[in-house]
Every structure is written in C-alpha cells, then in structure tokens.
Amino acid sequence: MGKYNIVAITNCPAGIAHTYMVAEAMENKAKSLGHTIKVETQGAVGVENELTPEDVKNADYVILALGRSITESDRERFNGKKVIEMKVSEALKTIETLFDDLEGQAVVFEGQVTNSSADPKVKLGKQKSKKGSITSHLMSGVSASLPFVIGGGLLVAIANIMVQYGAAYVDMSAGDPSFAWVLENIGYLGFKFMIPIMGAYIAYSISDKPAFAPAFIICYLANDKNLLGTESGAGFLGAIIFGLAIGYFVKYMKQIKVGKTLKPLYNFTIIPFVTMFIFGIITYYFMGPLLAGLMTGALNFLNSIPIEYKYPAAILVGAMLAFDMGGPVNKTAWFFCFSLIEQGVYDWYGIVGVVTLIPPIAAGVATLLQPKLFSKMEQESALSAIIVGSTVATEPAIPFALADPVPVIAANTIAGGITGMIALMLGVQRMAPGLGVFDPLLGLIKPAGSFYLALAIGVALNVFLIITFKKIRIARDAKKANN
C-alpha cells in the first residue's frame, strides 16, 4: 500500500462528539500507516483546521465523514478529486479498515464550476451516496440552532441564580432595569431566534445562500404571536416545514436559466424577493395560523395526558435515547424533546438530560469494576468514557457497544427506558443543553436532587445489566465451545 496525502472533513448533527472523535481516529490511524493527513472539523464552534486550496490541490484522496450535509460551495472545492464519502458514524465503526482500499472506495467528483462567483455550483457525477437527505438538512438546522439555545439558556440560568441569591430584578417599567433582568432578556433572545435560525439553515443546506434570508424571515413571522394573533407560534414544526419548503422552492428557482450577467442579481435579489413575497403572504394568511393552531392543540394534548399514560411514553423516549447512542433513533427522541423547549415544556427534555449521560458512564464504570470482561482497549478508554460522557455526549459508549453489541445495547436500552420513567416521576426539568452533570449547578436542570438521584439509579442499573448480560454471553459462548 502506498503512502498518500489525504485531506478530510468531519461533521455531525450536534457538532460535538462524533466530529472530533472521528477526526482524531482518522489522524491516528493514517499516521500509523505512514500517510499524511489534514482533517477539517465542522463542529459546534465552527470550522477548525480549515483546508486551504493548496491542501486540496496536493491531496491524493478526500474523505468526507458527514453527519449532516455540506453546501454546494463546500463541495465545489473537491471538483475533480478522488473522494470517499460516508456517514460519520460509519467512519468511526470502520476506522481500522478505512485506509485499506482508498482507490477502490474513491469516486471522482466531476463537473465544472461556473464563472460567476455568485453562483458556485458543481454537478457531481458517479456518486454512490446521496448528496443530502432530508434528515441531514434537518440536522444542519438543529446544529446551527444549538448555540442559540445553549448560550441563551446559560444566561437565563445565571440571571435566575443571581435573583435567588438576592440580586434585584427590576424591569423597564420601573425605571432603569436591573442587571439580572437585562441578562435574562438577552438570554431569551437565544430562545426567540433559535427557531428562525433553524429554518434558515435547513433551507441553506438545501439551496445555499439565496434561501437563507427568506427562510429566516418567514420562520420568524410564523412564530410572532402578536403579529399573527395566535396563542402560540408555529414552533419547530414551522421551522421544519418552512425550511424544507423554501429550500426546495429556491432550489427550483435556481434551475431557471438566466444570462451570466444577470445571475448575481437573480440569485441575491430576485430569488429572495419572490420567495419572501410568496411565502410571506401564505404564512400570514394561512400556514402561520394553521401551524400555530396545531402546536397549541399538541401542547394542550401533551399537558392533559393523565400521568399514568405519560410513563409508558417516558419509557419509550428513554429507551430510544439510549438505544443507538447518538444515532437516528436517539436523534428522533432527542428532537421531539428538544422541540418542546421553545414552548416552555421542560420535563421531556429533562429525560434527555439524564438518560444521555448513562450509557458512557455505565460502560466506563462497568469496565473499572469488572475489567476481565472487557478488552484492553476498552479498559484504557474507560476513564475517558466516564469523563466525556458525563459532560458532553453519549457517543463514547459506541466503542463498547461495537465490541459486544447484544449485551451492551440491551443493557443500555432497558436502563434508559426505566430511567426515563424515573426522571419523569421525579419531575426533572431541563431548560437547555449544557454541561451534563454540571447542569444543575448552572441552573439548567431542576430540581438538582431529583436529577442526581435519577442519574445514580440509571447508572447503577445500567452497570448491573452490562455486567450480568456480558457474563451470560460469556457463559453461553463457553458452553457452545465445549459442545
């Protein structure tokens, strides 16, 4: 096998765990094989270690490990290059064999870049994988909205903590507002704008820059209760519907042939104007009130469900969150719970705050308690799984699940479901994403005692199940070998 110069991009829906785990794994594996590699990470903090035109030009191969779609202008950089594209989760699973047959896996990105810099476009040929699915577009919107709700939630939490410790809370009607009031209202802007930003980035993921402004404005309009005269806004449902609709509408408009001299004017003036006009009228008179009514009805239904019927739902949500540790099942449950924050419903997101911490912590603790049941690599990563899993993401549990899928996934799913019900029973509420076990100290999760109690029960149960199921599996394998 030759020694190659490789460049790569990694991203994931949240831009936190997979993005950097896969980048580090790629770097370590490539260097151990003698390759030269540079990995651009597109995480929650933005683009880091960005690939330069010179890096791309000199690369023998490009690896795109993606959890959400990248834009046309991003893909333009790799026109004519040999590219391997895969899901970011798949890259983590296959890291040991990823570089074994680069030539066999690679597909040439083909096409021509238009002369107009206002509309960079590459037509990709011979692609085996989809350029962008609806799910990847939705995850692009979620990823963009996370910093708004995280930053806003932390500011609101700090303001509330200040008031609890005796700080003044005075609004503008009483004269000069107090610092706590100012801080809280700045924080609430994060919650206010996370919906328009989500819709805008969904549309941007589909059709690039011309779709961004129309989607932002229309999603803002759909959530302005005063302007629409409704009880609630369209919420995340509106962001999804308008983001997708505007994205694909603009994509269609971009296919209309216009002269090269008119192309910049068409893309950045005519398309936004026409889109805002059409969707603005539709939203104000029809879709805005309709979606707001649906959201109001859904919230009333959710709040009116008898508690005995909420428990099975909590078990299902908890099991889904723990099942594939950041995968599509996890993201479906997470998205449902997260979407309720903007409407002031925090108990379902409280389940997320507890359950997503459990699989990595439990895997690490079980390894420390019974090291003989785990491989040397698992033993070495146990402490890291506990630390990273308790503060950032569920994904550090993935290597343990890949090494022994049935016992670990079964243990995670059962413990996650039971813990989801316990969290709901104890009234755990989470206002915004934060720093895992430290969220109660930041005022993002309450009550703190209920959170830590649910977490302790969930971890203990998960550890017990992992060890028990592994021993059963080992005993069964030994019995088969003897027979």
Write a structural description.
It contains 19 helices and 8 strands. It has helices spanning about 15-30, 55-60, 70-75, 90-95, 100-105, 135-165, 180-205, 210-220, 225-230, 235-255, 265-305, 305-325, 330-340, 345-355, 360-370, 375-390, 400-405, 405-425, 450-480; strands spanning about 5-10, 35-45, 45-50, 60-65, 80-85, 105-110, 430, 445. The longest helix has about 40 residues, at about 265-305. A hairpin with a 2-residue loop joins strand 2 and strand 3. Helices cover about 65% and strands about 5% of the residues. It starts with a strand and ends with a helix. The chain has about 475 residues and is α/β, with parallel strands linked by helices. The chain folds into 3 domains: about 5-110, Response regulator (Rossmann fold, 3-Layer(aba) Sandwich); about 135-295, no CATH class; about 305-480, no CATH class. The strands form 2 sheets. A 6-stranded mixed β-sheet has the order 3-2-1-4-5-6. The chain is globular, with a radius of gyration of 24 Å. Mean pLDDT is about 85; it is low at about 110-130.
Q: How many E-type strands?
A: 8
Structural Rg = 24 Å
Sheet of most strands: 6 strands, mixed
Can you tell me the overall shape? Answer: globular
Through-space gap between termini: 42 Å
Pfam family, one: PTS_IIB
Keywords: Cell membrane, Kinase, Membrane, Phosphoprotein, Phosphotransferase system, Sugar transport, Transferase, Transmembrane, Transmembrane helix, Transport
Subcellular location: Cell inner membrane
Transmembrane segments: 138-166, 186-204, 234-253, 265-287, 348-369, 381-402, 408-428, 449-469
